[in-house]
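Q: Two folds, back to back.
A: First:
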Amino acid sequence: MNTHPAQEFQQRLVSDAAAAVRGLTVSLGDRLGLYRAMADSKPVTAEELASRTGIQPMYAREWLHAQVSGGYLRTDAAGARYWLPAEHVPALADRDSDLHAAPFFSALAALYTSEDSLVDAYRDGGGVGWDEHDGTLDDALARYFLPGYRAHLVQRWIPALEAAEDRLKDGGRIADVGCGVGYSTFLMAEAFPAAQVRGFDYYALAIEQARDLAAQRGLPEERVDFSTAGADAFEGGPYDLVTTFNCVHDIGDPDAVARHIRSQLSTDGTWMIVEPNADPDPLRNTHPAGRLFMALSAVMCLPAAAAQKGPRALGNHSGEDTLREIARSAGFTRWRKADATPVSAVYEARP
């Protein structure tokens, strides 16, 4: 029996709605440790999972049913035992894997809570700043990007830059601009113990969290410190390396920021720009990561930049040509794409 095109699209919409609601169950599974309790891929009953994780059996059973329905878990013919397939473990349960994606879903609650503010912004042309979202957003997105940073930042991205790694090993200076809660800052500080690393972010709550996390990691303040400052106002240069991780597109005046970064760099320093690996053409962003970035740009990234009332709000998929033009206008004379993953594009700009 043929399905009418309108019905086909309606079913796709229902499928998307199911995925959106299932996202909440993924967040619950991540926060409650349910996936990690099943990471050995051995079958368990609802009662066994409840006992392992300290949740109630009736909720364990309902959560398991939702996961089986979505294809995240498997069950036996009797529906009595459930397991997490080994190939699903990296994305759902292994926090050390660069494929780990479960933390993202904790960001959804904060984004949906901001819907009324987004409605107003869409109508009046204003924005919704990072500090206007629930504070869980910053931490959730930081945890989502952390596995990729942990897998690539020190091992691939910095070594791909011209001369930067050797300079940092010898005791260079790093400014991590838009550092959020500091995960990228910590990774660089721990990898280069002779270097001085400073993290900057305009969001005071994120800086407070970064300081607390630094203390928990035992990182000395004289070598790793955090300050509340905008990307166009941080100080302390000259720096050998300035990093911006997925934040240039959240800035209302990226041209001014590029000029300021240029002023804070040493004469032979490097600006490492990590941005979403997305294309300006939406028709080329139909792959999974591209679809995620397009949606985030509409509800988070563009509104964050617009809230700053600057002259140029980019969205998260402006592309390499636009970023190169911004850097060259700021006085950078050398530019190249140093590395890329399915999620991140890494650019090197030098004076």
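A: Second:
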Amino acid sequence: MREPQLVTAEGLPERVTIYEVGARDGLQNESAIVDVAVKAEFVNRLVDAGLTTIETTSFVHPKWVPQLADAAELLERLDLPDGVRAPVLVPNERGLDRALAAGVREIAIFASATETFAAKNLNSTLDDQFAMFTPTIERALGASLTVRGYVSMCYGDPWEGDVPIDQVVKVGARLVELGCHELSLGDTIGVATPGQVTALITAFGAAGVPVDKLAVHFHDTYGQALANTLTALREGVTTVDSSAGGLGGCPYAESATGNLATEDLLWQLNGLGIRTGVDLEKLVTTSTWMATQLGKPSPSRVVQALAG
């Protein structure tokens, strides 16, 4: 297998944590229902490739995301080694109840940075959304769970257009105040450019949210995901969300294409000498296998290049 030439660059972290979202954010956007046994094998293959943080599923009501209706059964099938984190997405207290019953130790909640997306995705308003997930966060923390916060539509909204930076910061800072240990800034429709990334991270710092609490989550709709990721790394971010094989999108935002592919991210990080602990060859093999299960090719450029 070909590897990129190693040439380091100044101003970048020595190590990056890849927060793998393919099993949840990737598969929830598939039109077909993937068998739970396939999902379990997918997660196990991701672990074997060296990924240590894998968002496995979601306890959203099956009516809204039928692709993940088997969340509890999937977790029962998994026997992950020590040191592997397996967070799940939880929308509300009912979802938290199901997660706690399944023995989950880490959850993620999701918020919107815009009014329209809050209405369409959460059936709420920008301010009222906090009333929905505040008790979820409080109960989770009380049960000694770790809580991650997602903020969607940080860089642009398909209905509202440009999103004011201070509006994003207000939502994100409030999640941190509520106790979220990490904040993932989502470019839900993939419109961000590096200048926006720098400006948003800088604004969070000015608001008292340190960069070590920030993660980035880019979609590649306009081909900017890797450039935006590199910009975030130069600003001090060390956690990057990505999806094996480039799976995913957003079921509530039709213009959103796939997530940044983990293989594409790895190619860049490996070339820069940034450690991740992930085996690129094993990951390409996994994504090629998953593409066969889904009956369509992987959109990852690295998978196409190395598996072709």
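Q: And?
A: The mean pLDDT is 94.
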